[in-house]
């Protein structure tokens, strides 16, 4: 199964609940405007990630986000 928009929204909601409880968390995800919007207000860092499984070598390096509340 794919991790679709509804699942991303649910994960962000759980992260917000954990934040209110004082639980520290870190999440990595694709760098999209949707993800940035979901996690607005948290610490967001950009990083490059390598995907060796991609057939096209030009698409093996992708941008990801590290999102955290600490």
Quick structural gist:
The protein is α+β, with helices and mostly antiparallel strands and 70 residues long. The protein contains two helices and three strands. The N and C termini lie far apart (31 Å).
Number of helices: 2
Strand order of the largest sheet: 1-3-2
How large is the radius of gyration?
A: 14 Å
N-C termini distance: 31 Å
The SSE order reads: HEHEE
Rounded mean pLDDT is: 90
Q: Helical amount among residues, as a percent range?
A: 25-40%
Strands, total number: 3
Structural class: alpha+beta
Report the portion of residues in β strands: 25-35%
The major β-sheet equals: 3 strands, antiparallel
C-alpha geometry: globular
Low-confidence stretches: none
Question: Can you give a write-up of this model?
Answer:
- The protein has 70 residues and is of the alpha+beta class.
- 31% of the residues lie in helices and 30% in strands.
- It has a three-stranded antiparallel beta sheet with strand order 1-3-2, with no helix packed on it.
- The chain is globular, with a radius of gyration of 14 Å.
SSE layout and pairing:
Blueprint: H1 5-20, E1 26-30, H2 33-38, E2 43-50, E3 61-68
Antiparallel strand pairs: 1-3, 2-3
Descriptors:
alpha+beta, 70 residues, 30% strand, 2 helices
């Amino acid at each position: 199964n794919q991790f679709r928009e509804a699942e991303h929204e649910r994960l962000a909601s759980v992260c917000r609940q954990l934040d209110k409880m004082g639980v520290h968390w870190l999440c990595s995800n694709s760098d999209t405007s949707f993800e940035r919007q979901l996690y607005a207000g948290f610490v967001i860092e950009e990083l490059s990630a390598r995907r060796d499984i991609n057939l096209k070598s030009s698409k093996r390096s992708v941008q990801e986000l590290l999102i955290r509340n600490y």
